[in-house]
Amino acid sequence: MQQPPLQGRDLERVISNRTEAEKADILFLKFSSDTGTIRNFGRRGSLFAPEAILSLVKKMALHNLSHWSDIELADRDLENENFKKSQEVLARKIHLALKSFSRAQKFIYLGGGHDYIYPTALAINHFSKKCVI
Question: How far apart are CA 12 and CA 67, in angstroms?
Answer without folding.
Answer: 12
